[in-house]
Amino acid sequence: MSPILIESIQAIVVDLPTIRPHKLAMHTMQRQTLVVIRAKCSDGLEGIGESTTIGGLAYGNESPDSIKQNIDSHLGRLLVGQDAANINAAMLRLDKAAKGNTFAKSGLESALLDAQGKRLGLPVSELLGGRVRDRLEVAWTLASGNTAEDIEEAERMLDIRRHRIFKLKIGAGEVNADLKHVIAIKQALGERASVRVDVNQAWDESVALRACRILGDNGIDLIEQPISRINRGGQIRLNQRSPAPIMADESIDSVEDAFSLAADGAASIFALKIAKNGGPRAVLRTAQIAEAAGVALYGGTMLEGAIGTLASAHAFLTLNKLQWGTELFGPLLLTEEIVTDAPVYRDFQLEVPRTPGLGLTLDEERLAFFSRK
Ligand code: MUC
Ligand code: MG
C-alpha cells in the first residue's frame, strides 16, 4: 500500500481580541495572535495545529511572524511529500534540518497528530498512549494590574465554579507594591483558593530571596520563574531556600533544558508547555524526565486558542501525575473563536473531547475574518 503523503502545509496568522488587557512582567497584551497550521494530506484529511506565543518577541525567541516565515520557507517544505502517518520520521526530519523553532514545530506536530487521529478514528490522547483522566483542573490568571479588580474577578470565578486556583502576574511593578497586591488577594480569598505568582524572570536573586520568603510565609502556594532563566546558580539556591516551591517556566526551552534543570535541582515543579518543547509528544519527554527526577508537574500555556489548548490537554491527560493542575484557560481570555465548538469548562475543569484527533473543526468564516491579510 502506498503511503499517505503530506500535500501542503499552511501557516495563518490570526489576531483575536481579549476580554481585557493581560499584564505580564515583560508585556501587556491588548490582543492575542495565533498561528494556525493546516496540514493537508493525500487521503483528503486535514490536520490542524497552533503555534502561539505571547507579545511578539517579548516572551521568547520566536514571534508569530518568524513562525510563519520559517514554516513557509523551511519547515513546511521539508514535510511536503513525506509520509503523513509517520510522525516520528516527520519530526526527526525537522529536528535534523532546523535547530530550535520549538513553537513552529509544536504546531506542525499537533497538526500531524490531529490528522492521524482523524484517520484512525482516535483522539490524540489515545495516539499518545491513552488518557488516564478525562478532565483537567484549570487555573485562571488575574492580570488586570489592579488589586480590587483582581479580587472581584476571582470572587466571580469562584461563584460560577470556573476556577479555584489563581496565578498573579507580578514583576512589572516595584517589589513591595507587588507583594502587597498578592498578599491582599490571598487574604481576601483565604482557604477558598490556591494563590500562586508568576514573576516572569523579573527579579534578581537579592530581591527574590527576600520576596520568596515573604510570599511563602503569607500562604502563596507556588512561585513561578522568579529570576532569569540564565542564572542557574541563583535558581538552585532559591529552590533550596524558598519556603514556597519554585516552578521553572522560561528556564525550559527544550527537553534538554528540563534534563539539566532536574539534574541541578534548580526547581521542584516544571511548567509543561508544548510550544517550548516542540509539540505534544515532545512535552511528554520533559514530563518523563521530571517524573524520574521527582519533580512535580503543571500543565502550562502560552495562552493559545482552542487548538493549542486542546493539543496540550490531550498530552496532559496521559500523564501519571499532574500534581499542580493546569492553566489551560487561553480560549477564555479571547472574545472570539475560530472553531465551531468552543472547549467546555465546567466545575473548575476543562473537558477534553473523545472525538477523533484534537476534536475541533475550524469555522472557515471566522478564520477568514480574523486572519491577517
Ligand atoms: C507564563 O509565563 O506562564 C501563562 C498564563 C499567563 O497568564 O501567562 C502565561 C505565560
Ligand atoms: Mg510563566
UniProtKB/TrEMBL annotation:
<dbReference type="InterPro" id="IPR013370">
    <property type="entry name" value="Chloromuconate_cycloisomerase"/>
</dbReference>
<dbReference type="Pfam" id="PF13378">
    <property type="entry name" value="MR_MLE_C"/>
</dbReference>
<dbReference type="InterPro" id="IPR036849">
    <property type="entry name" value="Enolase-like_C_sf"/>
</dbReference>
<keyword id="KW-0413">Isomerase</keyword>
<feature type="domain" description="Mandelate racemase/muconate lactonizing enzyme C-terminal">
    <location>
        <begin position="148"/>
        <end position="245"/>
    </location>
</feature>
<comment type="similarity">
    <text>Belongs to the mandelate racemase/muconate lactonizing enzyme family.</text>
</comment>
<dbReference type="InterPro" id="IPR013342">
    <property type="entry name" value="Mandelate_racemase_C"/>
</dbReference>
<protein>
    <submittedName>
        <fullName>Muconate cycloisomerase family protein</fullName>
    </submittedName>
</protein>
<keyword id="KW-0058">Aromatic hydrocarbons catabolism</keyword>
<dbReference type="InterPro" id="IPR029065">
    <property type="entry name" value="Enolase_C-like"/>
</dbReference>
<keyword id="KW-0464">Manganese</keyword>
<comment type="pathway">
    <text>Aromatic compound metabolism.</text>
</comment>
<keyword id="KW-0479">Metal-binding</keyword>
<dbReference type="InterPro" id="IPR029017">
    <property type="entry name" value="Enolase-like_N"/>
</dbReference>
<dbReference type="InterPro" id="IPR013341">
    <property type="entry name" value="Mandelate_racemase_N_dom"/>
</dbReference>
<dbReference type="Pfam" id="PF02746">
    <property type="entry name" value="MR_MLE_N"/>
</dbReference>
<dbReference type="InterPro" id="IPR018110">
    <property type="entry name" value="Mandel_Rmase/mucon_lact_enz_CS"/>
</dbReference>
